[in-house]
Specification:
This protein has 362 residues and is of the alpha/beta class. The chain folds into three domains: 79 residues, Orthogonal Bundle (Helix Hairpins); 157 residues, Histidine kinase-like ATPase, C-terminal domain (Heat Shock Protein 90, 2-Layer Sandwich), CATH 3.30.565.10; 106 residues, Rossmann fold, CATH 3.40.50.2300. The chain is 46% helix and 20% strand. It is built from nine helices and eleven strands. Strands 1, 2, 3, 4, 5, 6 and 7 form a seven-stranded mixed β-sheet that branches. A four-stranded parallel β-sheet has the order 9-8-10-11, with helices on both faces. A hairpin with a 6-residue loop joins strand 6 and strand 7. The two termini are 42 Å apart.
Length: 362
């Protein structure tokens, strides 16, 4: 019996070790990829020829695709190791779908397609759940629809199926996809790296991985996902999720571009020089006043000094993963000081970990 228990523990330990390894590798690669994306964005904001702009936009799209692929691999690994948890926060479902549609419209236009979306009147606005993961599912599934649709339009629909005991079942439909899939292969669509006629994995491995991840996330939300398809006709993706009705007040959307932030003092804390450069450019373009720190110790010293001179920093952009003190420790130390009382802190990370949200709320 003792040997059996030891054997049973090993797979779980191996899963956790693999998940931690992938997290570390993902963080290293993400930092490099983020640098490529950020510097490409900065270059796109300069005077370029039409051909140069086309080249850089291709680099940007490829980098975005790779970052998404890396995130999907990490998410799947965390799900298998039971390390991925869903948030439970109040959100506006219409805002979530609208934001996803706005992002997807760019992809649709690039593919020569039209993207439409609609929400049935019976869908409640204020819900409780994980809007980030729901957004991820919508993006993954609709990007697949765009990828495999040659002409016409892709439509995202949302309706309410039932409502009871404070829980609503939402039914999402993504229609207008491709030219059909054989019935016997439909179940394989949501398996990682499986070859399916009409969904060529060799060319679109990242998209198929996204489908597999979406299936896991949908199931974590108490729903299911399925495909309706007939050879020679458009396919339709369906998925449902179970979400709690929110009794809190969902505030109006706040647009950063509508705010006058000129003169606001900002301290950028990041050990990555490229990240600091990118934030500096973003901040200067909005008329904010910025300073830099390369680690937590330097950040605390600068924050205290500015407070004593009666010209404190109002906003701290703080990298979560840094050598020495990480972002959480820096934030805690500053909040215990007079200089941190009125300071707003934004924690930044390329790879979130289980429990990060709860730690931020502490």
């Amino acid at each position: 019996m003792k040997q059996t228990n030891q054997k049973a523990v090993r797979p779980q330990s191996t899963d956790l070790a693999s998940s931690e390894f992938l997290t570390n590798i993902n963080h290293v690669i993400r930092n490099r990829m983020d640098s490529i994306v950020e510097m490409t964005d900065l270059t796109l904001g300069t005077g370029l020829t039409k051909k140069q702009r086309e080249y850089l936009e291709t680099v940007r799209m490829s980098a975005d695709s790779l970052v998404t692929f890396l995130n999907d691999i990490l998410d799947l690994s965390n799900i298998e190791a039971c390390q991925l948890e869903l948030e439970e926060i109040d959100f506006d479902i219409r805002n979530t779908l609208e934001n996803a549609a706005n992002e997807l419209t760019v992809d649709a236009k690039a593919a020569g397609l039209e993207l439409n979306w609609h929400i049935e009147p019976d869908v409640p606005t204020a819900l409780m759940g994980d809007p980030g993961r729901l957004f991820q599912i919508i993006i993954n599934l609709t990007q697949n629809a765009i990828r495999f649709t040659k002409e016409g339009k892709v439509v995202i629909g949302l309706k309410g199926e039932k409502k009871e005991n404070g829980i609503v079942v939402l039914h999402f439909v993504v229609s207008g996809i491709g030219t059909g899939i054989p019935r016997e292969q439909m179940a394989d669509v949501f398996r990682s790296f499986t070859q399916v006629d009409g969904f060529p994995v060799q060319d679109h491995g990242s998209e198929v991985l996204g489908l597999s991840l979406s299936k896991h996330l949908v199931e974590m939300m108490g729903g299911r996902i399925w495909l309706e398809s007939e050879m020679g006709h458009d396919s339709t993706l369906h998925f449902t999720v179970h979400l709690a009705l929110s009794h809190g007040k969902i505030g109006d959307k706040l647009h950063l571009m509508d705010l006058d932030l000129s003169g606001l003092k900002v301290l950028i804390v990041d050990d990555n020089e490229i990240n600091r450069l990118v934030f500096q450019n973003m901040i200067c373009s909005r008329g904010l006043v910025s300073a830099e720190a390369v680690n937590g110790k330097e950040a605390i010293i600068k924050a205290k000094k500015a407070f004593k001179s009666e010209n404190p920093y109002r906003l701290l952009l703080l990298d979560l993963q840094m050598p020495g003190m990480d972002g959480f420790e820096v934030a805690r130390k500053l909040k215990d000081e007079p200089c941190g009382t009125d300071m707003k802190i934004i924690l930044l990370t390329s790879v979130g970990q289980k429990g990060d949200t709860a730690r931020c709320k502490e």
